[in-house]
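Q: Sequence in, structure out?
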Amino acid sequence: MTSASVETLASGPLFGLPLPELWFALVFGLLGTFLFLDGFDFGAGAIFATLADDEAREAVLSAIGPFWDGNEVWLVVFGGALFAAFPPVYAELFSRHYLLMFGILGALILRGLAPEMYEQRHDERWQRWWGRSFVAGSVLAPFLLGAFAGNWLVGAPRSFTLVGVVVGVTVTTLTVVSGAAFLRLKTRDALPETVTRIGLGAVVAYLFAVVVTLGVVAARLPAGIDALLSAPVLALVAVSVVLGVGYGVALRHGANAVALAAAAGLTYGLIAVVAILMYPSIDPATGMTVREAIVSTLPLNLMSIGAALLLPLIATYFVVLYSAFSGPITAEEAY
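A: Exactly. Output:
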C-alpha cells in the first residue's frame, strides 16, 4: 500500500459514510443473526425436555445436527466485530460481566457436548443424564445471553440483576418460538402435535414478556418511559404484535416456513429495540458514545473494506449449508 493510499484512507471515512453508526448497526445485526440461527437450536433443546419418545428425541437431534455448530460462528463474528470496532467497549463490557461470559461459554459447551455423549451409549440412565444436560445447556445459554444484553442496555455494574433476569426469560422464550417453527419445518409429522401447542404458548408468553421487559427497562433508563414512546420503538412493538399473531396463524395451519420467518422478524425486532434504546451510547455504564468508542479512521476504513469482502463469503457458506440440508429429515437420518 503506497503512502498516498494510506493518507487517503486516514483522511476521512470511506465515501463519506457514517462508519461509526454503520458498525454499531452491524454489531447488533450480528448479535441478532446469532440469536435467531442458534436460537432455534436452543429452542429445539428446550422442547427436547417435553418429549419422552426416543424416536421423537432422535428427530430433534437429527434436525439441528447439521446446523448448530455452524450457527455459533455468528457469536464469534459478533465478538470479533465488537473488539475490532469498539475495543474499549469490548474490554469494559466483557471484564464487567466476565461471570456471565464464562456462564454462556459453559452452557454452549454443555449444549454441544451433550448430544454427542447422548448418542454414545443406549443406556437409559446414561441418556437420561445427557438428555438433561442438553436441555440445561439449551436453556441456560439464551437466558445468560439475554441477561448480558439486558445489563449492557441499562449499564448495570453487576452481572445478576432484575433487568438481566427479565430479559433472559424473554430471550429464552423467544428461542422456544423459533425452535418450534424450525422443528415443525424439519420434522413434519415425526414429532407430536405438542410441539405446535408449545410454539403457540411460547409466542403468547414472549409478547407478554416483552411488555414486562419494556416496563422494567424503562424504570432503569435515564429517559424513563419517554424512551419507549419514541416512534421507532412503538413501531417495532406494533410490528412484533403483528408478527406474533402471524406466527401463531402460520404455525397452526402448517405454514412452517412462514412461522420461522415471523420468528426471525421477532428476533431482529427485539435486537433493534435494544439498539435504538441504547444509541447514541454504546456502553451506558461508562457513558461512552458510538463516536467516542470507535477506532481511528485508518483502521476503521481498513476494517470496513475487509468486512465488505468477508461477510458475503460467510453468508454464502451458510446459504450452501442450509441448501445442502434443506427439506425435512428422513427416517434414515441420525445425529
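The chain is about 75% helix and 0% strand.
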